[in-house]
Amino acid sequence: MAKSLKPTDARLKTADELSALLLDLRKEQFNLRFQRATGQNEGVGRVRTVRRDIARVKTIIAEKQRSVTTPAVPTGAAVQS
Q1: How does pLDDT run across 45-57, given as a tens digit for each residue?
Q2: Whether 22 contacts 57, CB under 8 Å
Q3: Element of type H or E holding 22
């Protein structure tokens, strides 16, 4: 797995790829937690990186869902009453 996930790379992925990536990151987070509990944790900074990557992926998934459910309103459009 890469050091850190770039938001631009994640935005290019499909919803299925993002879901698979999220699952992989959660598995890695679980393994890192297990390593810390047993005293085998070597990459201390990796826990933080994985946690932030999970947040990035979840944010991008939410953005994609929001863009699908709400129609885009052109900026500067006049509101008619």
Answers
A1: 999 999 999 999 9
A2: yes
A3: helix 15-38
